[in-house]
Specification:
The structure holds two protein chains of two kinds. Chain A is mainly α. Chain A has one domain. Helix content of chain A is 76%, strand content 0%. Chain A is built from 16 helices and no strands. In chain A, helix 1 crosses helix 2, helix 2 packs antiparallel against helix 3 and helix 3 crosses helix 8. Chain A is globular, with a radius of gyration of 19 Å. Chain B is an alpha/beta fold. Chain B has two domains: 125 residues; 121 residues. Helix content of chain B is 54%, strand content 7%. A five-stranded mixed β-sheet of chain B has the order 2-1-3-5-4, covered by helices on one side. In chain B, a hairpin with a 3-residue loop joins strand 4 and strand 5. In chain B, helix 1 packs across helix 4. The longest helix of chain B is centred in the first third of the chain and has 18 residues. Chain B starts with a helix and ends in a 10-residue tail after the last strand. The chains are: A mainly alpha, B alpha/beta. At the A-B interface, helix 5, helix 6, helix 9, helix 10 and helix 11 of A face helix 3, helix 5, helix 6, helix 9 and strand 2 of B.
Chain lengths: 345, 270
């Protein structure tokens, strides 16, 4: 459990540190790193998982490969931290010092919902695709050799419902995490993962608020409080991003709606404020899109569409083609994912 | 084009049944477009949101998106890239920050929250969350059935476990254990079975207590399908048929029973 907690808190922050400049978002550097770092954890699994599924490798082999990638990224992040003499405690301190009342209310609301997701349950039969396949992978040490929901052996991936699990194998995240931490996929997905995801879903509003309100912390806190109230009141429809994020947070599409889509918006707000899009920013967008590709095939398409639209509009507003031209390389990955999906269908 | 327009309308009604939150989004967007377009960040947000909203309602866009969104079945996901929460919250913060007096701003914040709460439906009060019986957060019948089958496999050494069960169990039992294979999986499987294989669909309806007239044929059929475990509600009234065909009660769940037949074996490979 301790290793799991470190994996969910320290590791994403380290990967986020690798992706983002230290002064991004002022006092919200820690939430920014945590949100961005979680997408790194996702993105790093996507193509290894697709390759291992298509090459009929085992879950153990995928887990080892994933750990090697994470280890390399962690080493890079640690090296960067040492080179820049970064004090991680200063980053944490900056978040809490000068905290305003609305921010405290926003944190309290986020914490409240995190506790609700830990203690209470929402049963959803979409788990068929995520949790059943993860349990099957864990118990058989295979990757998509059986239909998760029935246990029948798969002789081909060219089957409706299975094809998109090849291009967007989100279930492998649960399978790998279960293998690493010894927590079964069902309690991992339903109990231990949602509280962390809840925090990410609301931290991203702090980041967006920072860009929209000219670094006014009080307004950022209020912005996040209102976003929480909107999500909390999303019970009028099961189809809104809010209801997905609040009640089905462990599912890939909820993470696309609640985290990736807002993160991409935040990123372009940062780029347009800075007036340019650097090579490192292209890498950032690429990681966000890759994370979406792991989560769901639909999410990959929507996230790519969002990035494309924002890049075109940013280019038009600032009259700088670079926003559009530099987004194109990041879009290659969702296009490749779509290619895998179309090959499977 | 008519189908595309109908798709847009039906999707709109699904996502915004009362329409109020759409009007909040629209009002916030208009506020942003008209009054807050000077800075590049809010300008980008406003124009992007306007483009997405217009694209959603434009039938040719829906027509193009349909093949990529499971023939329009999930067209509502297009609205996920419309940042409604960001727009409404931005307008709310602007409304709650217009005065130089803190007490006025605090009152305005509370008013905004009240409007948002009254305009929506509280998820906490909606029954979306229930108290779980375990960390798996699955129905008790599913967990008990999985445990009973695993225990039986351990004690008999017979690893073959092909289960026929109501949807409540069959949708989720393989989240707990992959030791069990299933006669059928989740709801969508059932709907496809309805069109392609009437016999199986009939069996499932009996298991789910939704069909009575075929129940005696059901047990015979399930045995023929090599189901050595059958979970069925007592209300189906097929206990006699199960005993007759060599099944005995493995676990008594009160108003349901898990039956097991050690003689049923998997189909021999040719």
């Amino acid at each position: 459990m301790v290793i799991y907690l470190l994996f969910m808190t320290v590791l994403p922050a380290m990967y986020g540190y690798l992706l983002l400049p230290e002064d991004v978002c002022g006092p919200y550097a820690l939430p920014a790193m945590w949100c961005a770092g979680w997408t790194v954890l996702m993105a790093a699994l996507h193509w290894p998982a697709v390759a291992c599924i298509l090459l009929n490798r085992s879950l153990t082999e995928l887990t080892v490969l994933y750990l090697l990638i994470l280890g390399a990224l962690l080493a890079a992040s640690a090296a960067r931290m040492v080179r820049r003499h970064t004090n991680p405690f200063r980053i944490i301190r900056n978040f809490f010092s000068g905290i305003t009342f609305p921010e405290l209310v926003a944190l309290a609301a986020t914490g409240f919902h995190a506790v609700v997701t830990f203690l209470y349950m929402h049963v959803d039969d979409d788990d068929y695709a995520f949790v059943s396949n993860a349990t099957t992978s864990l118990d058989t040490n295979t990757l998509l050799r059986y239909i998760g929901g029935t246990g029948k052996a798969l002789t081909t991936y060219h089957v409706d419902g299975i094809d998109r699990l090849v291009s967007s194998p989100h279930f492998t995240l649960f399978a790998v995490m279960s293998k690493l931490f010894g927590i079964r996929p069902a309690p991992l997905a339903h109990t231990f993962l949602p509280p962390f995801l809840t925090c990410l879903f609301f931290f991203v509003f702090f980041l967006i608020g920072w860009e929209l309100f000219k670094s006014d912390r009080r307004k950022c806190g209020l912005f996040t409080v209102f976003a929480f109230v909107i999500y909390m009141s999303a019970g009028f429809s099961t189809y809104t991003a809010g209801s997905f994020a609040m009640i089905r947070s462990w599912q890939g599409k909820a993470q696309v709606a609640g985290l990736i889509v807002p993160l991409i918006l935040w990123a372009y707000l940062v780029f347009i404020r800075e007036g340019e899009m650097r090579a490192a920013d292209v890498v950032l967008i690429a990681f966000f899109l890759e994370a979406a590709c792991l989560m769901t095939s639909m999410g990959a398409m929507l996230a790519a569409l969002e990035a494309l639209l924002l890049s075109i509009l940013a280019a038009l507003i600032l009259k700088k083609k670079q926003f559009f031209l530099r987004t194109i390389p990041a879009l290659i990955l969702p296009v490749l994912t779509a290619g895998v999906y179309l090959y499977m269908t | 084009m008519k189908e595309a327009f109908e798709l847009v309308l039906s999707t709109f009604k699904k996502v915004y049944p009362s329409g109020l939150y759409f009007y909040f989004t629209l009002a916030a967007l208009l506020y942003l477009l008209i009054l807050r377009r000077k800075r590049s960040g809010p300008k980008l947000l406003a124009i992007y949101s306007a483009v997405v909203m217009a694209a959603f309602f434009f039938p040719p866009v829906a027509r193009i998106m349909v093949p990529f969104m499971r023939d329009g079945f999930v067209y509502w996901r297009f609205l996920w890239i419309l940042p409604s929460a960001v727009l409404i919250s931005f307008a709310g913060v602007s409304a709650a920050s217009f005065s130089s007096k803190r007490i006025v701003n605090a009152a305005a914040s509370i008013a905004v929250i009240a409007v948002l709460v009254l305009g929506g439906k509280n998820l906490y009060a909606d029954g979306a969350f229930k108290k779980p019986l375990s960390r798996e957060k699955l129905p008790d019948i599913t967990l008990v059935t999985a445990a009973a089958i695993e225990e039986n496999i351990r004690s008999t050494g017979n690893t073959y476990a092909h289960l026929a069960a109501p949807l409540l169990v069959s949708s989720e039992i393989r989240e707990v254990t992959s030791a069990v294979t299933l006669f059928s999986g989740r709801v969508i499987d059932i709907l496809s079975l309805k069109e392609t294989n009437k016999g199986w669909y009939r069996n499932l309806m009996v298991l789910n207590n939704q069909l009575e007239d075929a129940k005696h044929k059901t047990i015979k059929s399930l045995k023929r399908q090599r189901c050595n475990y059958i979970l069925i509600y007592d209300a189906a009234g097929v206990n006699g048929d199960l005993e007759e065909r060599g099944y005995s009660v493995l676990h008594d769940g009160g108003n349901w029973k898990l039956w097991f037949n050690p003689e049923v074996e998997p189909k021999k490979e040719a």
